[in-house]
Amino acid sequence: MKNVTSDRVRIKDGFWRFYADLNRRVTAHSVYDRFKETGRFDALRCDWREGEPNRPHIFWDSDVVKWMEGIAYLLEEAPAPDLEQKVDAAVAEIEAHQRADGYFNSYFLSVEPSKIFTDRDRHELYCLGHAIEAAIAYHRATGKERFLNCVLKYVDLVYRVFVAEGSAAFVTPGHEEIELALLRLYDYRKDPKHLELARFFIDQRGNNDKEDTRDCWQADRPVREIREAVGHAVRAGYLYTAMAMLAATDGDEALKTACERVFSDITTRKMSVTGGVGAEHDGEKFSYAYDLPNSDTYNETCASIALALFGNAMQELVLDSRYGDAVERALYNGFLAGVSLDGDKFFYTNPLEIDRKKYARSTYQPICERVKVFRCSCCPPNVVRVLSSIGRYMYTVGENAIYCHQFASSEVKLTVGGKEALLAQETNYPCDGSIAFTYHGAPTTLYVRIPDWCVEYEGETENGYAAFSVSDGDRVEVTLPMAVHFVEANPYVQDNAGRCAVQRGPLVYCMEEVDNGENLRDITLLENGEAQVKTEEGLPAPVLYMSAERRPKTETLYALKSHARVPFTARLIPYFAFANRGASDMLVWTMVK
Amino acid sequence: MKNVTSDRVRIKDGFWRFYADLNRRVTAHSVYDRFKETGRFDALRCDWREGEPNRPHIFWDSDVVKWMEGIAYLLEEAPAPDLEQKVDAAVAEIEAHQRADGYFNSYFLSVEPSKIFTDRDRHELYCLGHAIEAAIAYHRATGKERFLNCVLKYVDLVYRVFVAEGSAAFVTPGHEEIELALLRLYDYRKDPKHLELARFFIDQRGNNDKEDTRDCWQADRPVREIREAVGHAVRAGYLYTAMAMLAATDGDEALKTACERVFSDITTRKMSVTGGVGAEHDGEKFSYAYDLPNSDTYNETCASIALALFGNAMQELVLDSRYGDAVERALYNGFLAGVSLDGDKFFYTNPLEIDRKKYARSTYQPICERVKVFRCSCCPPNVVRVLSSIGRYMYTVGENAIYCHQFASSEVKLTVGGKEALLAQETNYPCDGSIAFTYHGAPTTLYVRIPDWCVEYEGETENGYAAFSVSDGDRVEVTLPMAVHFVEANPYVQDNAGRCAVQRGPLVYCMEEVDNGENLRDITLLENGEAQVKTEEGLPAPVLYMSAERRPKTETLYALKSHARVPFTARLIPYFAFANRGASDMLVWTMVK
Lengths: 593, 593
What we know:
Two copies of one chain form a homodimer.
Chain A: E1 2-3, E2 9-13, H1 15-37, H2 60-77, H3 81-97, H4 106-110, H5 124-142, H6 146-164, H7 178-189, H8 192-204, H9 233-250, H10 253-269, H11 301-314, H12 321-335, E3 353-354, H13 379-387, E4 395-398, E5 401-404, E6 409-416, E7 419-427, E8 434-440, E9 444-449, E10 465-470, E11 475-479, E12 484-489, E13 500-504, E14 507-512, H14 513-516, E15 524-525, E16 531-534, E17 543-550, E18 558-560, E19 566-574, E20 586-587, E21 591-592
Parallel strand pairs in A: 5-9, 15-21
Antiparallel strand pairs in A: 1-4, 2-6, 3-20, 4-5, 6-7, 7-8, 8-11, 9-10, 12-13, 13-14, 14-19, 14-20, 15-17, 16-17, 17-19
């Protein structure tokens, strides 16, 4: 089974078109401008000197190349000459300042050349990983070879230093990413050296005497022995993605089992209802099982992306709709909350509750408004590249089978039975659950994921997919009933005991103070009340108006339990749309009766 | 109006006798032993030198003299020759090492003599304040004058340095206590100099150019302008107590108004249902209004004591049962949780929830088992002195009126209309709510506080007190119906939205994991279910057995809201009794339906 790459998919209109356009119009430019003004592009000249402003940082190159990757996907879809020119200029700087042996990292070359390859926690191979992905995408989009050649030269150096000579001060990178990038490179170029290098970094992890074995950096055991998700959630997610890709490439059953195990640990014990992962802000890491707090959860935007990538990789390995379910949950909620509706502001962390009064406490609290750039600004360019490559998550092609995991008004070019085929989706998803597929190509079976939220679906399913035999010209209609659901968490999730999340289709909803007044936690939604679904200007998905009640205000601090309630209509908006109208309290998990 | 001092009250049996005996038998000795072995008594010799073990600390003297004060109250009640001998030995050390000018502080004399009276945040006057209280108590109990003379000499020095010469590097102490102590000394000795010194420290606070004005140390404004409770909760409580005492002494209406205002702010916005105050662990301070978290609240044992002292002082100033209500809430819950049922282990902080899994989080979490001594061990000797002076909180005598604020099987000697009178209480309070008073003395009016929790009381009340005319030999019976109540917090208390505390009489109840299994937050008590009240071995108050339900265990992380419930009988114990059976999760605020 093979995922269909984003260049084969065209998003036509609807929800993801809204975001693709926003990205092309605003996000891609804004991220460039912020990176330009903070010196990230200038740093590529490797001529920064002590005392000058904009001191480079070890992860700056990754910011830049992730943005370049995002632009490459935009270019696959349609020309954007100004953006392409900016990418070319960056490539020229990299090419010009790459060391003769292939090494390139703007921080180390300008600030600490003596520290090259001396510290596994300083992101050199992480930066290279993102550069590999970007170079592949740019080559695929434009046919231009300079960036890819730079990267191939650097990869050769890494192979020599880490595998052939073992002369670096560490064995595996502290921040994973290069593993999955090398596997993409192998997939793109079929050079066995790249597969070997990927395998080396994966197999050596937790499996050598040179490195510390803290579990917080996924270094406590060999990867095939991983039993649960621990440590830095983004690093972990990138590693697990690479493990799944390698398992598929090598047919490695032990690795596949480890991947299934850890995916299950995440999605049944360590994932917010929004698909946010990595609850513990200290170390940006997975917390213990069922520790899914609300206002003080971390849930980095990049961690939701990593979960989507992991699910996407698992789709090539195991036929089970739960992978697509998790990808959907992450993309529509935890990931998408990372960008503002006007496209130029970002969250690094994505809380499930904001209580601004708590800012007076000494404990960790999330910011309540998005910002244009962070000092550690990994998320914004990650948003750019995901929004421009959303097609990547939609389809897998197997032996005479097409698997549709995600829904969007779109067309995809596929190879079925060795021949070109075309599959179109007409849908207004996730605003409603009707999807019409039109197929042109050789006879095959179309498998359509029936999402986990769609408990009302009555047709037969196989591994969570509804199967349809299709021949040239066939039209298949699938309707996913989209009721407003009250979702409860496992009783072990102590922070949400007695509370429900409201979900409609893949979208998790939340209440904001700006709509519903203060003291959001005291609001109760009525299980048998009204729930109006309304499409409103400026939002790519509907809002909900629901019957609710709250306690009247009172002067007393403590009193006998009362039954007095003030009825009102609560306005709920999609979680991804929170914090777009100024500072406001917000709540996902609400009381229901 | 005048509070009756503890030496006039004899606790005969019942609840507070249980604790008085425990104190006499265990607590008083254990605190001494711990302080002895940690060098606190030896430090009084002022001969510690750098490099030796048990380096003295700036607040050690306060630990020692608070213990001495507690012993003095024990001696008022009955002889305890071994303890008296230990107090005498300590007095002898203080006397022997007091400087010629009267100064005494074991830390400064042995470690930093050059720093005497240079830093307002280093507890010298706080230590002296506690010494004053201890010396009065010891003099009253034994008639021995040496300790009191030491203290009077030191107070003279303080008067000279701070008032006459103004030669100290600061004006008012960073940690309040001496203010209320000086007012007790004035009350005991009627030396106007002591009143003047107390007035000086109170009036200069927030009212001079020499000192920083951070609100966290109650230094942001003159005391008559205080509008809300801020800063370190123990320091604040001691200051407010002194303000109330001074307002009563001086008939100072502006000061009285400030006291009423800040008492109201505490009890209607900043007090846990247990009478715990000072929610913010960072700075041990009051948090913002209605910020009353559970597992991460601070609620220092000493802060509940300070609240009880403040309420006690207000009883001399304003006739209103809410002062006695707060004293009762603090004493039976937030304070008493500070000591173990076997008397020799203590909590410094008193959370309303323990979820031991949260210990894996990076954020502040309370300890879940009491310890015998702390490095900063202010609470244990404070427990000793409160348990041996509980009579202090019970009565106020006004012009031809006796006010009974607290209930205990006891006898009190009073002066009514210039003549000796005797009032006995027979009661099993708080196990049940029947109280029989027997009075011997001149005709007067007995006012009995009808507690705020007793909403079922049907008799007439005046400022919250039921009035009874009594003559010699009269017997008055008061019955306070003691139902099991579900208490809810103000909707602004976001942490407890949708939850209730269970209260019976003055006792707040809690559930422990050891009785009720894990996931306490997922338990729902049934509003119309059974609630059995049972007296059980080893506990001085009853436990409750209540109809409850919880969700069945499940493998899924998220699912549609279910109505499946497993019924069971929850066991609730008085909050003060939690954490006496090993490490266990605990919860006060529970769901009710």
